[in-house]
Structures are given as structure tokens and as C-alpha cells.
Amino acid sequence: MQHCDDLAHQKLSFWNDTGKTGISAWVFSTDHKRIGLLYLYSVLSFFLVAVTIGLLLKIELIAPGRTIMGPVTYNALFTVHGVLMIFLFIIPGFPGAFGNLVMPIQIGASDVAFPRLNLFSWWLYLIGAVTIIFSLFTGGGPPDTGWTFYVPFSVKTGTNVSLAVFGVFIVGFSSILTGINFVTTIHRLRADGMQWGRLPLFVWSVYATAWVQILATPVLGITLLLIVAERLLGTGLFDPARGGDPILYQHLFWIYSHPAVYIMILPGMGVISEIFPVFARKPIFGYKMIAFSSLAIAGAGSLVWAHHMFTSGMSDTAILVFSFLTFVVAIPSAIKVFNWVATLYKGSISLEAPMLFALSFILLFSIGGLTGLLQGAAATNIHVHDTQFVVGHFHYVIFGGAGFAFFSAMHYWLPKFYGRTYAEKPAVVAWGLLFVGFNITYFPMILLGLKGMPRRYYDYLPEFTHLNQLSTFGSWILATGLALMLVNLSRGLLKGEPIGRNPWGGATLEWTTQSPPVTENFEQEPVVTHGPYDFNGAGVP
Amino acid sequence: MIQRDENRYAGAKLGIWLFLFTEILLFGGLFLLYAAYLSQYPHEFASAGHEMQLAFGFANTLVLITSSMLAAMSLTAVQLREQRKALIMLGATIFCAIIFLVNKYFEWSSEINSGFYPNSPRLATGPMGEALYFSLYYLTTGLHGLHVLIGIVLLTLVSVKVSHGTIHAGNYVLLENSALYWHLVDLIWIFIFPLYYLVL
Ligand code: HEM
Ligand SMILES: [Cu+2]
């Protein structure tokens, strides 16, 4: 690490630029960096709650029969775990936290296009989140439908589904507004010389993500409103007894929720594309293909929703078509993986914390992707449908993929915004614990699913005991790693060593400004003269 | 990176167009359900459609198209620096919007009085598709009515700004965007009207 510039010469950073202090300087700030940090703190809080619930679920599964909770509690807890993780952590997390923190600086803008709308989005997110939390303690108690809110159960259950669903609707609205803000920002506010071909790949991924947010979320919105209408008014739209069709609900739900997995994973892929060139000290291999594949994933990925419904009763032709399209999405994803690996080839690789997380991303995401193909093929899907295999698969993609990329981003970028950095050794140890713990937790689930253990059950047959115990044991290692990582990060960011402008030697714009940046992001308006991975040219300041 | 005025304007326009897309998609879900159930229950949909009172729908269509025109005229007026005229046009737009809702209120009341509403005893005993038709009808027009209501609030806000002079010939993007929103509300109605009142 280099400590090039003298801290005494720094201008006031965005942390202490305003006369105002206290909480209102934050929750009413329109600075994208402050809003990004607000998102970060809020999504991490929900993440920690959801992790705790996940650990409780795993403790229940340590032995057959009832261990610490009965079936009713288990149903409520896995629903709450899923809802928090999906709607309050990973979907808003990446765009909200790192999209906000990094994207405007990377394109050389002083803020997003609509700063007040940005603040409003965060408030909506918070209001939606509070509504969801509220639904857990009021009405008929926490919803127990699973995060998918499938009818007819979600209409029949006496739990507080309406309020929870309404909360998710509000959060979705926030997501739409963020998407609109980001697309406009990237179109209108690029610095002089920041041509489309010079956009950092993280920006490309945020751009693709924003389009998915805009195009898919409204469909979720209307679907959720329909559940509320069905419960309150008895519209019967999804009730076969009244002529409705529950399969239509599933279509509408997955038309959003499949593309939503790209909201979760695309920004993660963007982070990886930033980290590999910097830590291999080589320009990214196949810049255009990576940028293009983000768009291709967003586009093709929007056509594959019905692969969640192979066992729901669709025509064979539909199954064939959706199965085929699902395999098509694997192509742009594989393009990315090959390009990343090619970037590493013959690079001078430095294995620091962000890079370790990024490297493990590749492995975990590949396992997630390959198990995904097994479900994309109709024949094998029928075997593994609704088993622990699915739970293993999506944790590999969302947690091993998006989650690890999120951690990577935290180590890579947060020092920029705090001006101080974490300790490297504990960071590496935490990564090791996370990686090992992760695999011990989730790989057994894949095996359990293949052997036939269903998902969303608090109990199982004795023959599944050993693998379940292993998995529970793994979850404790995982939790230890998480705790160590978060403690190390918070200690370092608050009290650690100061860092200079460019600790990693990156060539993107955020490294040209001071750490932490001034409110307007740059001391002088940047003019871009080279690409984001041009380490040899005028690149590295 | 300086946010030049022109750039700001273009940004605001891009933003509102993106937002309008999301509105279309929101209603798109309901239109999708309409299509699916129409193909499943063509006869029931037709017989339910005959229960609609064309006069109400027709009147509302006229009112809404007129209001859309008035909104556009208020924008032109602001551009020509005719503040008073702009305010009158905006007022007339809002008036039309209120007429629309009042009309809708009478329409819904009369339908509810005849026993057509979700979960009503009359529909519960009738053929299945008819109940679905009315559920969709109430949901779609209800959501649309909500948009009309939001439009009224928005246009009122804009009128205040016009009267204070914060919206003027040099800066009218908020008015323009509100008018665009209003055109969309109009446009969605232009789809609802034939689907529920005419084609069946
Ligand atoms: C320490 C971390 C975690 C643990 C121990 C954990 C554990 C679990 C367990 C035991 C289940 C229920 C399996 C079943 O009985 O069907 C589950 C479900 C789920 N998890 Fe996690 N998980 C963790 C992290 C995450 C993360 C990071 C995400 C996403 C960002 C996530 C998303 C989900 C979802 C969507 C479900 C499905 C809930 C449902 O079926 O409705 N989990 N998790
Ligand atoms: Cu999917």
C-alpha cells in the first residue's frame, strides 16, 4: 500500500463538510455517498438479523424431530429469513449501497441525476422495511408462506401476509426509483471524455441492473397488490374454486423474481470485473464482451421465468422452450467467467482480502451456476424440485456469489469512503473461515437434496442426520467468519491506518480523488483520457 | 460534470419517460390477466361486458381526452409567458379530473347496487368467468382511479408553482412532466374503455 499524499493537505471530506451534525445531517442528506452509507448500514442490519434466523433454522435441523422449535415457528422463520435476505438485503443492497457510493464517482459526476429522489428512495426503503418488520408482530403473526407468497396458501393463511406484502411493494417502488435515477445518471452525467467504451465494468453492471429494476419490478408490484386484493376483497383471480388460476400467479411472480436474481448477481459480477484487473495488474480481458454479456444476461434472463414452474403443470412445449432459454443464459455467464480467468492468466496476482473474496466468488458462483443447469433441464428438475438441493443451489448463487462479491466490495471500496483501512491478517483469516464454513454448510444441502430431503421442513428422516449435522456445524464456522470480518472492518474503518488516494493502484476515477472524497467528489472536474483498466498509460495517479 | 441546464432538462425528461414505462408495466400485469381469462372464458366475459353502462364509460372518455388537451394547452401557455391562461387551463384540467372521479363514483355505485362487485352473492352464483371479469374491472379501474387522484394532487401542486412563478417560460419541466403523466393516465383509460365497454 502506498501512502502518497499528506493528510494535512486534505480538504474537508463529505463526513464533516456540513455545519449540521447528528442524525439529521445523514437522514436528510442528498449526497449520494451519505445515502450509500445509509443503505449500507440498513441492509447490513437486516442481514445480521436474517443470519441469526438462518442459524436458528440450522440448529433446528441438527437432529431429526423437534429440537428447538415446532413446525409453525419454523415456517414463520424461514419465511422471515427469506424475505429479509431477498427484499431487504441483497436486492436493495448492491445498487443502494455500492451503486450509490461508487457509480457516480466512477463516471466523474458530482452526484446522481436526481439527488432528492435518491434520498426519497432510501426513505421508501426504510418505510417498507419497517412495514415488513411491523407485520411480524401484529395481525395474525409473521407470514408463513415462504418469500414467494404462493397462492392459494398466501390467501388462506391467517397470518399477516397482507401487511408484509404491502411492505415489499413499497420496497419495490424504492427499487424502481433507484433504477430510474441510475439510468438517467449514467446517460446524462458522465464526465468529459467518459465515453461508453470507457465506462468501468461496475458501471456497466449497475446500468444493466437498473434496467432490470425498471422493467421487472412493476410486475411484482401488481402481483403483490393482487394478493392483497384477493385477501381483502375476495376477487378470486387465483382461486380455482371461483374460476381463477393459481398458475397465473406463479407466472406473474416469476416474471419479476427470476429477473430479480440478476439484480442480485449482476452488480456482484461488476465488482469482480473491477477487482481482477487491479489485483492482477492487467487490463481486463474482453472488456466489450463483459459489458455486452451484462446486457445479454439482463435481456435473455428476462425470458426464462417459467423454469420455476416445470412441476406446476405447464404444456410440454412450454417446458421445452423455457428449458432451452434457461440454457441460453448460461452462455453470457460463462463468457464472463472465461474472461475473468483469462484476465488472471499470467497476471502478477496479489492475494489481498478483496481478491481472495473475488477468487472464491468464481468457484462458488460456478457451483451455483452448474447446479442451476441441473434445474434448468426439465428431467433433472423434476427429481430435485423443492428439495434441499435447491436451497444449496441458491445459497451458492446468492450468498456465495452476490454475498461474497458484496464482502469483496466492502474490503475494496469502503476504505475509500472512511479514509482508513482494516487489518489485513484478520481479514484473510475471516475470509478463510467464511469460505470453509460456507462450503461445509451448503455442500451437504446439495447432497441431501439429491438423496431426497425436501426443503421447508423442520424435520427429516434419520438417514439424513449426518449430513445435516455437518451442515449445521459449518454454519457456526460461517458465522464466526462473518463476525470476525465485520469486527475487523468496523475497527479498521473507524480507527485503522489512514490510506492515501489509491491504495490498490486502480485506474478508475474513484482512485484519483482523496480518501474520503470531498462532497463534490472531485477537487477539480475530471477529464477522462484513458480507459478504466489502462494501468500503463496516464492511468495510475 | 457541471449540471448544465440543458443537461438537467434532458435528464428530467429521460427520468419521467422511464417512470411512465414502469406505469405501463404495472397495468400490463392486469391486461395480461385480462387476456388470459378472456381466452379461457370468452362467453362469460361477453355476457358480463354487456352489463356495463356504456354512457358512463363514454362520458369519462370524453372528459379525460379533453383534460389531456387542456393540460397540453397549459404547457404552451407557460411557454408563451401567459401565466393567467396557464392557470385557467390547469384549473380546467383538474376540474375534468374531478368530474371523472365523480362520474366513476356514480358508475360504481350503480354497479354495486345491481350486485356486481367482487365476492358478491350475485356473482358467486353466476358463471365463473363473470366474477373474474368484474374483479378485473374493479381492480383496473380502481388502480386507474388512484392514478387520477394522484394526478389531481400533482396538478394542484404544479398550479401553485405556476402562480408563484417558480414554473415559468425558462423552467417548465415539472409542468411538462406532469402533463406527460396526465397523458399516460389518459392513454391507459383509452385501453380500458374498449376492453371493458366496447369489444365484448
Ligand atoms: C449464515 C448464513 C445463512 C444461513 C445459516 C442460512 C440458512 C438457511 C436455511 C436453513 C434455510 C431454510 C431451508 C429450508 O428448510 O428450506 C434458508 C432458506 C433461505 N435462505 Fe438462507 N441462510 C443464510 C444466508 C442467506 C443469504 C445471504 C441469503 C440471500 C441473500 C439467503 C436466502 C435464503 C432464501 C431466499 C431462503 C428460502 C426461504 C424460503 O424457502 O422461503 N440465505 N437459509
Ligand atoms: Cu429463475
Automatic annotation (TrEMBL), chain A:
Transmembrane parts of this sequence: 38-57, 77-102, 122-141, 161-183, 204-228, 248-272, 284-306, 318-341, 353-374, 394-414, 426-450, 470-489
Pathway noted in the entry: Energy metabolism; oxidative phosphorylation
PROSITE patterns named in the record: COX1, COX1_CUB
Keywords: Cell membrane, Copper, Electron transport, Heme, Iron, Membrane, Metal-binding, Respiratory chain, Translocase, Transmembrane, Transmembrane helix, Transport
Residue ranges of every copy of the Cytochrome oxidase subunit I profile domain listed in the record: 20-529
MF (Gene Ontology): cytochrome-c oxidase activity; heme binding; metal ion binding
InterPro entries: Cyt_c_oxase-like_su1_dom (IPR023616), Cyt_c_oxase-like_su1_sf (IPR036927), Cyt_C_Oxase_1 (IPR000883), Cyt_c_Oxase_su1_BS (IPR023615), Cyt_c_oxidase_su1_bac (IPR014241)
Highest taxon above the source species: Bacteria
Reactions performed catalytically: 4 Fe(II)-[cytochrome c] + O2 + 8 H(+)(in) = 4 Fe(III)-[cytochrome c] + 2 H2O + 4 H(+)(out)
EC number: 7.1.1.9
GO CC list: plasma membrane
Similarity comment text for this entry: Belongs to the heme-copper respiratory oxidase family.
Function, in words: Cytochrome c oxidase is the component of the respiratory chain that catalyzes the reduction of oxygen to water. Subunits 1-3 form the functional core of the enzyme complex. CO I is the catalytic subunit of the enzyme. Electrons originating in cytochrome c are transferred via the copper A center of subunit 2 and heme A of subunit 1 to the bimetallic center formed by heme A3 and copper B.
Protein's UniProt name: Cytochrome c oxidase subunit 1
TrEMBL record, chain B:
GO molecular function: cytochrome-c oxidase activity
Topology term for the membrane: Multi-pass membrane protein
Pfam families, per the entry: COX3
Gene Ontology CC terms, in alphabetical order: plasma membrane
Gene3D superfamilies: Cytochrome c oxidase, subunit III, four-helix bundle
Sequence intervals crossing the membrane: 12-34, 54-75, 87-106, 136-158, 179-199
PROSITE patterns on file: COX3 (PS50253)
Entry superkingdom: Bacteria
Localisation: Cell membrane; Membrane
Primary location: membrane
One GO process term, biological-process aspect: aerobic electron transport chain
Domain Heme-copper oxidase subunit III family profile, residue spans: 1-200
Family per record: Belongs to the cytochrome c oxidase subunit 3 family.
Family annotation (PANTHER family): CYTOCHROME C OXIDASE SUBUNIT III, NITRIC OXIDE REDUCTASE SUBUNIT E
Protein name: Cytochrome c oxidase subunit 3 family protein
Naturally occurring in which organism (per UniProt): Geoanaerobacter pelophilus
Organism classification: Bacteria, Pseudomonadati, Thermodesulfobacteriota, Desulfuromonadia, Geobacterales
